[in-house]
Amino acid sequence: MSVDFNIKIGGEAGQGLQTISSALAKTFLNGGYNVFVSHFFLSRIRGGHNFSEVRISDEQINSKKNSVDLLVALDAKSIEHHYDELNEGTVIVLDINSIESITKEADDASYFDVPFTDIAKDISGHKIYSNSVATGAIVGLLCYEFQYLADVLTRAFESKGDDIVQNNINAAKAGYDYAQENYATQCYHMVIPKDKTTNKILVTGNEAIGLGAISGGLQFLSAYPMSPSTGAMLYIADNADKFNIIVEQAEDEIAALNMAIGASFAGARSMVTTSGGGFALMAEALGLAGITETPVVIYLAQRPGPATGLPTMTEQGDLQFVINASQGEFPRCVLAPMNPKDAFYLTVKAFNIAAKYQIPVFLLGDQYLADSSFTVPIFDQDNIDVEHWVLSSEELDEIEEYKRYLITESGISPRALPGSSKHLVCADSDEHDEYGHIDQTIENRIKMNSKRLKKNEGLVKEIFPPLEYGSNDSDITFVGWGSTYGPIKEAVDTLTKKGYHVNMVHFNEVYPLPQETVTSILKDKNSLIAIENNATGQFTKLLYSETGIKISQSILRFDGLPFTADNIIGKLHDMEMI
Amino acid sequence: MSVDFNIKIGGEAGQGLQTISSALAKTFLNGGYNVFVSHFFLSRIRGGHNFSEVRISDEQINSKKNSVDLLVALDAKSIEHHYDELNEGTVIVLDINSIESITKEADDASYFDVPFTDIAKDISGHKIYSNSVATGAIVGLLCYEFQYLADVLTRAFESKGDDIVQNNINAAKAGYDYAQENYATQCYHMVIPKDKTTNKILVTGNEAIGLGAISGGLQFLSAYPMSPSTGAMLYIADNADKFNIIVEQAEDEIAALNMAIGASFAGARSMVTTSGGGFALMAEALGLAGITETPVVIYLAQRPGPATGLPTMTEQGDLQFVINASQGEFPRCVLAPMNPKDAFYLTVKAFNIAAKYQIPVFLLGDQYLADSSFTVPIFDQDNIDVEHWVLSSEELDEIEEYKRYLITESGISPRALPGSSKHLVCADSDEHDEYGHIDQTIENRIKMNSKRLKKNEGLVKEIFPPLEYGSNDSDITFVGWGSTYGPIKEAVDTLTKKGYHVNMVHFNEVYPLPQETVTSILKDKNSLIAIENNATGQFTKLLYSETGIKISQSILRFDGLPFTADNIIGKLHDMEMI
Amino acid sequence: MSKHIQPQLFDTNQEIEWCPGCGNFNILKALKRAFTELEKKPEELLLCSGIGQAAKLPHYINSNIYNGLHGRALPIATAAKIVNSELTVIAIGGDGDMYGEGGNHFIHTIRRNPNITMIAHDNQIYGLTKGQASPTSNFGMITKLQKHGVINRPFNPLSVAIGLNCSFVSRGFAGNIEQLTSILKKAILHKGFALVDILQPCVTFNKLNTYKWYQERVYNLDDEGHDPHDQQEAFRKSLEFGDKIPTGIFYENKENYLNTYEQNVGVDDQALTKKSDDSRDITALMLEFT
Amino acid sequence: MSKHIQPQLFDTNQEIEWCPGCGNFNILKALKRAFTELEKKPEELLLCSGIGQAAKLPHYINSNIYNGLHGRALPIATAAKIVNSELTVIAIGGDGDMYGEGGNHFIHTIRRNPNITMIAHDNQIYGLTKGQASPTSNFGMITKLQKHGVINRPFNPLSVAIGLNCSFVSRGFAGNIEQLTSILKKAILHKGFALVDILQPCVTFNKLNTYKWYQERVYNLDDEGHDPHDQQEAFRKSLEFGDKIPTGIFYENKENYLNTYEQNVGVDDQALTKKSDDSRDITALMLEFT
Ligand SMILES: Cc1ncc(C[n+]2csc(CCOP(=O)(O)OP(=O)(O)O)c2C)c(N)n1
Ligand SMILES: Cc1ncc(C[n+]2csc(CCOP(=O)(O)OP(=O)(O)O)c2C)c(N)n1
Ligand code: SF4
Ligand code: SF4
Ligand SMILES: [Mg+2]
Ligand SMILES: [Mg+2]
Q1: For a pocket test of ligand 1, which of C97, C124, C209 has the largest count of ligand atoms closer than 8 A to its C-beta?
Q2: How far is A47 from chain C (nearest CA, A)?
Q3: With 70 as the cut, is the pLDDT of residue B108 above it?
Q4: Whose CA is nearest to atom 6 of ligand 3?
């Protein structure tokens, strides 16, 4: 049996959509399924209309699905807004008492009323348990083993005491039973647990980057809160004590990046988390890292701009900005994770590259990656290396005269930390000599600027080729970057199943681009189609300007939402490509 | 007789190099010559080694010359540093008493000692007049009519009283006479005044932009001082009263651009002046202007980066930064003046484009343009139009319901000012509806984002084609942008005179690029050579990515100094192109 | 006239995005009342704000609005005022907005002294970003991010403003609409830069500084006969923030050299846009370059 | 030990780029003396600065240096200190650097209270950019840019710092090396954030606040028996800036909750880099995601 089931839960901000979706997700994850959870929130704390989606599949999934198989409506808008997405026969679960009025007739869909609040009050004495009732009811409708949910609730509420755990379990069980007893066919759809020891975890991009940072040796994080990046900061703060990490909430983003640079200069692996608007304020300090050759990692979770834009939605609109930000010319590296697994390993890589080349490295994510939960195999820590590229005390002892900016073949100068030996370490945002002192001569300028840019030669060799996926001999090749990996891959799979010859080339290490490798991969492909979550095709431009590969067809989305495979396939139809 | 004479004056910061160079320049300007004055300063107020150059020609010049025909040495370093630049027989004028030691033998060059200080004290009673002695001596060595210098000094010191004027004139005359009496051949070189009513003025780029801004209707300027842009701010401040212009020194650059935007929203034509580092701090506000569709002009005078870099030198290193700055996607325009004449008219154009398209417009200059004085014909004010593109009271009276962000065919919405009628004007940095209120729906997002980007279509039609100069049928075409115009043009002229077939295509309106026009101009040219004052060829990349025209040969300079025709020709030799 | 102006004049049909029970509602109410009682017309008003929950307020008042960037309401408001001094300009934001991201503009706008009113909804928390400490959060307060409690000492907007000889310094409380309305009216009428810091319970994220917490502590400076012209006393009062929290007008500066920014620039009588015309003859300027 | 340490220890062979007669020379001298008398070693020091004439100072002292961006010395210094609390960290800059561009860091670094010393060369002018008004320029002072005189009231770093309960607040004068050295020593020894604002004549651009001008006005707070633990008195003194200008230590805060930033974060005993190692096992963390 192949499962691909999509549950949508709609309601107001503050109604606990995330509690329900998270419990459901883990319940199915632990039964061996692949789960994908995504959220749509407005930029407000209460009210409005938000929704979460839990997609359950026995195949690897990294993306949303357009159609809804089960709708949980906590408010009337859930029905109005999502009615068109329902399949024939989709069941809408709701507590009729708590919804003002229903405007849609149940033709294709059928309503299933579960008195969440009444049950919660009856069984556990308070309406706060109604979300557990709802969760139970859904699990019941899918005839899934209740114990998985009970375990999830136990762990979720453990810290609040046994009573609370029991109340939640009781409420859930009552919902479960109510569904099984009252739903016409008992099971609306049958989902059977597969495997108890899956070695899979369910993490968001923010959490994966947090885990990657911790694993990669992060010691100092400074940030100013900004959606959708704040989750990474919070995740690291939650675990900071265990690993002696300092997390500093800065007064503004200017301070944040300057602090991270100061910390790095003093010897800590450091990082900032931000979004486009916050990064805009960091542009000057980016150049500071550039000219003082101070390693730093910048996690930028993109959201639609310009300016405040759509703070809680997704876009890939800042690529050209990060590549070109700050006055002057200096090397930098941009990594754009495809999914949380990739995010984890790329975060470790980001720290190592930053340290080795003494440059700023970007992790360029977006709200879709940051906030959605993906099922990934447990990260493999065996191959994680924390590379410092700093002179040891012994090495320092051997040095007669230390020059922070020694001119070398590779452009990389040996790095010492201030206070770690009797050698003095000087850094300067002015053009400087090898010792780090102001030097305005033209001879020195040529040497130093060239030395810094020289690092690009080594850097580009660190960049992995893009990922190729799908049939070798294809009529259409999708080209994407970053978080669109999931939907594109699913589109390739779906189309392949339907007999089309399509494949994809996907970039997760986007700058600098290794020209030859990329050209050799793309040059003989038929019909390249760029897929980007922005309005102007920023990666397409980058690819062209760096490699000369021109992609003239594209599927662009800039409405604040992520792609789905269905969108992509739909667009292909519109373009009469299939 | 053809004159092309280069006087270099070297000395410490604070020794008054600019006083001498400015007096000399005006003296020859007013005698009908074209003069070009450039400066090399260190980032300090006193000491170090600086120099100014005054080049005098009877042809139009917009650039420096490599070789020195007359060196005025106010310190020993002037001789050490510039000895190699001297021609055979170049005379070095100096006051031997005030120079510690001379290390260079006079082989090709001959020293001419003028006791500046002693003469100053003798004649006018104080050594502060020694610069006037020096100036007079130079004019004397060139056997140029003294009266021109006397007039210049009169006007320069007028405001300080008749005595000061007379002391300066007397000192200068004494220097003049001393030279004529003591120089072996009386005239070292003969420069004869040509024409008294030249209609030419001698202005720096900063001043020309200031004049353009005033002429173009500037009402509000906010800025935080930053070399090399401060001159423009100062020039405008000096004349602000006469034209009811408000000049505000902001607490930082963030405030500066936000203020300019606030002022523009309220109805004033507004502008900021800055350099790369200051602009980095404005990147977020740039997007604010973008999404709120508020006109604003940003004058960015480039200097070598990254970060503080070389604060007093020149580079064209910020082009890609300004084109891509700020999160999200929105239209903007970048104009890069070739010389002060161009700067004047482009500044007026910048204000009009900003007003018409309701977008931020950049004037991208650099230290070479900003600080050098160029001889230009008096600006023609007849064709200056100050276009407001704001709804009049009558138009507003006729409108039933005003929508600040009305969706229109062109993407341009009718602009009203707050308080100018009973219609309310609302602007929002969030994605907003036609009224300017927050709107997070995807339908609205698509409409609004598309509306803003739509403006690009009209905008690109406003862009003038690049300037073409030189023989039609050429073997080599130089492609440049912005302030490199002068040296490139001179290289073309020089090479043409030598019988080479070279020409140039020069861009002063650099973004957005009108693809077809540009392609049709460049596509059939032989051997394109890009000339840029940066290390990575930023315009070359832009040209390629916007038009597909690939320039594979380039002459790049990134040592902080501007090009000269000699440099360019020298490089062509190195490249074995000539 | 006054009886014709109705409070609804300032109503909009924008859906209010705040949580039920939030202190912001009362601030909105008080501000509308103040405008009504001062007989303002919507088109005379310009409400500038940054980003945050508080900064959404302008959308809920029928007026000209400029809802700009996080932290940047003051430069926008200052410049708009200097260009059109006929507008009544208010800058609105949260404590994070005004004192964190926007801290530099706060201290320097006081120095400029434009005739605008600055309203800080001081909920001692970052609301919109879901509950991190703000510059004014109590020392030791535990938040989702500050798990061991806030370790920075709170920013004191009043003592800073008084130290900078700010022209009008006050504190209101969202739980007292009467007093707040009266403070807002005085602030708006005051000629010069007027700070109104408002204690504003955030019912969702700030579980420490609740209505009750404030209510138990606030008292009115008027009741103590406080003299707002005494800078030293004002300073003393501004340091009080514990068991007792003073509200009302702390400081009002009427010194002579405290001309407003508009007066100093010479545009308080007439909007700049009306003063300057487009016939800009630069012939004389050009002659200076020969 | 002490007799072996020589003042030349802190000399460098960098050419000093200041104008002859500039107040900066004496500040440099006093700082070297303070380091010498405190028996510091060059490698123990980290001097962080921004951009400006003052900010060039670190190049003239043999030490570790980070000469960063205009306005941003404090965040660099704070972070470096928290990472390596064994370093003696000094942040140096001009009045424009520290109070203008860097104003937001100034007020928020006080709140954090890292154990660093901030030195502001307060010449009441922008030196390096050739003479525009700075935040502390006297009201009415005429400059090349402020042709009709400065219209903003001066920023008062001392009253702001005292209002924020800053842990150590002082003012020196470049014309009095003895006193300045003594203040600097106390500031460096003080555990917590120490502000040293230094009246520094700029002989080239500030023709108002000259050596003479200052000399005629300055007096030593010690001579008046000023009690630096009295915040209210400190505030009163901080407002004095006219015919008489107090120098010395205005305020010293020894309250208990004024732990340093390093103490609050738990890294004052040992450098963070020595505490944390690379063996980061995240297995337990991952299990929370099932
Ligand atoms: C440059 C920038 N950084 C960060 C943010 C994210 N952000 C939005 S509101 C806010 C703070 C909200 O707190 P406050 O200003 O106190 O307002 P409140 O929501 O509490 O009313 C932050 C950090 C942003 N919009 N822009
Ligand atoms: C972001 C940025 N803006 C502006 C400048 C230009 N700048 C350099 S120093 C300076 C001010 C100098 O004044 P101050 O800080 O008082 O130092 P001083 O030279 O008087 O010692 C300015 C505005 C800069 N380097 N960076
Ligand atoms: S989060 Fe707090 S401040 Fe924001 S609306 Fe809700 S209660 Fe008010
Ligand atoms: S300009 Fe002023 S502050 Fe700078 S070195 Fe000269 S005298 Fe000192
Ligand atoms: Mg708040
Ligand atoms: Mg200064």
Answers
A1: C97
A2: 7
A3: no
A4: C19
Provide the domain count of chain C. 1
Give the model confidence (pLDDT) of D61-75 as tens digits. 999 999 999 999 999
Closest ligand to the CA of B253: 2
pLDDT band at D275 (very low <50, low <70, confident <90, very high): confident
* SS3 assignment, position B184: coil
Which domains are delineated in chain A?
4-182 (3.40.920.10), 202-377 (3.40.50.970), 393-462 (no CATH), 467-574 (3.40.50.920)
Atom of ligand 3 nearest to the CA of C131: 1
DSSP annotation of C199 reads E
D2 domain-assigned = no
pLDDT at B429: 98
Q: Which of A148, A149, A244 to mutate to test the interface with D (most CBs of D within 10 A)?
A: A244
Structural domain boundaries, residue D109: 17-287
Any atom of ligand 2 within 6 Å of the Cβ of D68? no
- Across chain A, how many H-helices and E-strands are there? 20, 21
DSSP output for B478-545: EEEEGGGHHHHHHHHHHHHHTT--EEEEEESEEES--HHHHHHHHTT-SSEEEEESSSS-HHHHHHHH
Position C121 in a domain: yes
On chain C, the residues whose CB falls within 8 A of the CB of D108 are 100, 103, 135, 152, 155
Residue D218 counted as domain residue: yes
Whole-angstrom distance, CA of residue D78 vs CA of residue D102: 13
- Domain of D85, CATH number, reads 3.40.50.970
Take atom 8 of ligand 3 and give the residue whose Cα is closest. Answer: C22
Give tens-digit pLDDT for A152-180.
Answer: 999 999 999 999 999 999 999 999 999 99
Long-range contacts of C3-10 (CB under 8 A, 24+ apart): C5/C36, C5/C39, C6/C36, C7/C32, C7/C33, C7/C36, C9/C36, C9/C41, C9/C42, C9/C62, C10/C35, C10/C36, C10/C42, C10/C61, C10/C62, C10/C63
* B262 with C275: Cβ contact below 8 A: no
ipTM: 0.97
Of D59, D65, D80, the CB nearest to A266: D80
For residue A45, give the ligand nearest its CA: 3
Measured in degrees and rounded to the nearest 5, phi and psi for residue C53 equal -65, -50
pLDDT, tens digit (0-9, with 9 covering 90-100), for A413-445: 999 999 999 999 999 999 999 999 999 999 999
Give chain A positions within 8 Å (CB) of B330. Answer: 305-306
Nearest CA of chain B to the CA of D204: how many Å?
8
Query: In this complex, which chains have at least 3 CB pairs below 8 Å with chain B?
Result: A, C, D
Residue D1 included in any domain: no
Question: Shortest CB distance from B251 goes to which of D103, D132, D204?
Answer: D103
In this complex, which chains have at least 3 CB pairs below 8 Å with chain C? A, B, D
Distance from CA of B490 to the nearest CA of D (A): 33
Residue A334 parent element (H or E): strand A333-335
AA identity, residue B229: S
- Name the pLDDT band for A459 (thresholds 50, 70, 90): very high
pLDDT in tens, chain C (290 residues): 344 556 689 999 999 999 999 999 999 999 999 999 999 999 999 999 999 999 999 999 999 999 999 999 999 999 999 999 999 999 999 999 999 999 999 999 999 999 999 999 999 999 999 999 999 999 999 999 999 999 999 999 999 999 999 999 999 999 999 999 999 999 999 999 999 999 999 999 999 999 999 999 999 999 999 999 999 999 999 999 999 999 999 999 877 567 999 999 999 888 888 886 778 999 999 999 98
